Each structure stands twice: as structure tokens, then as C-alpha cells.
Amino acid sequence: MNLLVVGASGFLGAEVCRQAVAAGHRVVGTYHRAAVAVPGVASRRLDVTDRAAVRALLTGVRPDAVVATPYRYDDWAVTADGAAHIAVAAAEVGARLVHLSSDALHAGRPKPYADEDVPTPLHAYGAAKAAAETAVRAVDPGAALVRTSLIVGEGSKQIQLCRDALAGRATLFTDELRCPVHVADLAAAVLELVPGDYAGLLNVAGPEAVSRAELGLLVARHDGVDAGGLRTTTIAAAGLHRPGEVVLDSARAAGLLRTRLRAVSELYG
Asked: What are phi and psi of 183, to 5 degrees?
């Protein structure tokens, strides 16, 4: 299979590339700043906000499938418009599209979120991810849209944040719940979806919800460091307006996929 990974220099994109190469696929990976450093991947620079450039790349590569992971936290053009440009170009060349979305588009509530629950974003990034989903679904109803949560593993920004909090350089929230997923599990799940015909939204996250503070404690135990210095607070005490309890129900993915989505306590227990 000829696979194009958009955002291959990112944490998840690079893991998708590694697993795809190991499976014998021909892989082209795009980057914006730092070139893709995965052996066996043909690296191409791409600005996803440039619609003509996206179209030209896909027309030249002619991929069988596209895994799209474009995002920049504070940049609507990359996160929303970039996703739309990729979807249009993928549809034009007849490529299967797997688009990566996020739990950031939910506002938070005590009840877990099902796969098709509508977005209720509280901040600009969540709104951009919601807009990206809307564009992808309008352009390509056959695309798979993966909603995921905090991506963990060695090299993860989420794990580094925990280590910074343990060292007194950052603060973790006790009331911000998520369902962390290991990057290797998520990448394997994404690659399972590539040759299939699953269409629409799919929650793909870990089966265990923990607060960021609890994740910090798990990292401390895993690293064998004293958790006494862990800095914590609440969203309200910090005076912030951000999602609190965002738990993704990934039961459908667990039944659909061979990949086992491991609980975070198993990963860092």
C-alpha cells in the first residue's frame, strides 16, 4: 500500500510511519519545520494551509490512503483549514482518509461521550477541531474520523508535563479527567482503520479515565521518583475556562479493532 502520513514529524505521525514501514507499506511523510526522521519514509515538506500545495503533493504521490494528523494548538488555519484541504485533495485522487480528531472539542460532563456526540467546544482549539470534522465529513462521508485523548509514551508532551510538575516547574489539575492512550496503541488502531471501510466518528482512547494529577502520580511511580513535590490545583482555582471531565467511551473501537487499547495504570503502574 502507498500511504501518505500528513504530520509525520509529530509524535503520533512518526509512530504511524514506523509501524507502517515495519508492515511493508510504502510511506511518504510530510513535515512543516523538522524533516521526518523515520528510516524508510520519503520526507516531503508541506504547508497544509496552502491548498494548491496540498493538491499538488497528493496528485504527485497518488496515495492509496492518507492518515491526516495536522494541528497547531493556536492556529485555526492549520487545524481546521488544513484538514479541509487534505480531505478535498484525498477525495480528488480517490484515497482512503483517516482523520485524527480530539476530545478537546467536548466541553466536559459527568457522563462519558459516545462516538457520535456533537462537539461543544469551550476554546478556540476545540472549535477548530470541530470545524475540521465538519469539513472532512462534508467532503468525504466515507472517511474515518478518530477522536482520541491524551497521547502518552516516551517523548510525549503529556508525560513531560507530568515530570515538570513533579519537579515544580508546572501544575496539574485534579479535576481535568481524560482517557490517556499509548502512542503505539493509537498508531496501530489507526493503521487498522486504513484498509477498512469504517466511516464516521470513532472514539479511540484508553479505557481508564484519570485526572492529570493522577497521571502525574502514575508517572512518578513509573519513574521511581518522590511524588511529594507534585504541584496540583483545580481549574476553578486557576481561574480558567476549560473542559473538566471529558471521558471518551471507546467500547465500539474495542469491539471493532484487534489492537488492545491499554489502560494508563497498566502502562505506568
From this structure: -60, -35
